[in-house]
Structure formats: C-alpha cells, structure tokens
Amino acid sequence: MTDPVARSFAGKRLFVHEEQNLLFGYTSIDFGARDLKRFFPSLPLLFLKQVHSQRILSDGEWLAGSEADGLLLERPGAVAVIQTADCLPLFFWDKRRRRGGILHVGWRGLQQGIEERLVARLGKELGEFFFFLGPAIDGNCYEVGEELVALFAKKAYANRIFSQVRPGKYRLDIKSGLKQSLASAGIAAERIRDCKICTHCSTGLFPSYRRDGGTGRRIFNFLLLSDGGRTGA
Ligand SMILES: [Zn+2]
Q1: pLDDT digits over 177-221, tens only?
Q2: d(CA 169, ligand 1 centre) in Å
Q3: Full-prediction pTM beyond 0.85?
Q4: How many A from CA of 14 to the centre of ligand 1?
Q5: DSSP characters for 12-65?
Q6: Which of the residues 17, 58, 101, 133 has the least number of beta carbons within 10 Å of its own beta carbon?
Q7: Ligand 1 centre from 194 Cα, in Å?
C-alpha cells in the first residue's frame, strides 16, 4: 500500500492512488467541486450531507441530500466523496476491490463509533479489508476542552488519545483513537496505513478549519472501484 501521489489537473493539484480496479485520493486547497466533476466527467459523484453522525450508506441506499457520514460502494460506477477540513477521511477497500468507501471521522464520529458501525457492516469479510487514513489534523495540533475527555471516558483507548497542555485544555489524537479501535476489532496493523499529513501544518496545500476558520474550503476525498473509462485526465 502506498500513499496517493501528486498530480496536476487543469493546473490544480490533487493526490491520486491508482491500481487495478481501485482509485482513491484527495484534492488540494485550490481544487473545487467543479474541478472534481471535470476530473470524473462521466461518473456520478455521491456527495453526502455530512452531519457528524455514525450513519453509513451504501451506493444502493444513497439519495441526493442524504444525511450520513460514510459511503460504502458495493459496485463500480460511482465515486464516493467525503469533504473534510481537519476531520479524518478513512478510506477502505477489500482485496478483490468489490467493496470500498470512505468515512468522515471527526471527534463526534469517533465518539459515536462510526468505525464500529463500519466493522459490523463489513461482517465476516472484515479481514479482507485495507484502511487508509487521509490528511487530517494531527494530535499535536488539535486542542480541545476538558468536556471531550469525559465524553470519551468509556472508550478502551480513552487514556491514550488525550494529553493535557494546560488546565482545562487537552490535545486530542483522533487518528490514534481510530487506529486503536480498528486494531481492537481485529484488523492487522499492516492493513492500516496513515498518510501522516497534518492539515493544520499544511498551509497553502490543504484547507484547515482550525487554521483558516470558515472559508468554506474543503478537501474532496474520493474513492472509485474500477478504473474503466474514468477520468478526463
Ligand atoms: Zn499539525
């Protein structure tokens, strides 16, 4: 498993991992939704109304405007899209490239256990899946209030994701919590890869809500099963 590599499309930058029957990646700060549509001119883009929930929809269940935070593709022919700007995109696919998708994991999604929902949904095939953690705010850059510590108190990994910076303020490592949760579900470490890109530290390359505020800029994270007849690139 390798990280997506930088490519240029219409003078703008995105990062793409491509292999037989699988394509996934993420866009840079200057890449808009229109650019994404031009990159995939002949395929439907499945956007969600993301609401920091634990809800995951399959491509067969998806409707325009659906409120959910995860997409599970069960056939080729559509592009799953998750928008982020510090929250974590979790990509996943099975070894035969028959199923795959993306979750939107912020602290609320992690606290609600969206990844546990995915694990349950993948069922017996879980051991055939690979996971990739895309660009997200790093544990060193994500400061939160004490109230979150209490909200995570029941998680088995709770005491390993927070570090206190000063009274009432903690750093939260979402990626670490997610990885520990996947590991405790029985997923082998070699099936989980982390691109280790911090959005907050990537000024000029990736949007960061914590760094830039509400500019409306987002990373478009995308995944497609099958590469046949795909892009205009
Ligand atoms: Zn950072």
Answers
A1: 999 999 999 999 999 999 999 999 999 999 999 999 888 899 999
A2: 17
A3: yes
A4: 20
A5: EEEEEEEETTEEEEEE-TT--HHHHHHHSTTS-EE--B--S-S-EEETTT--TT
A6: 58
A7: 14
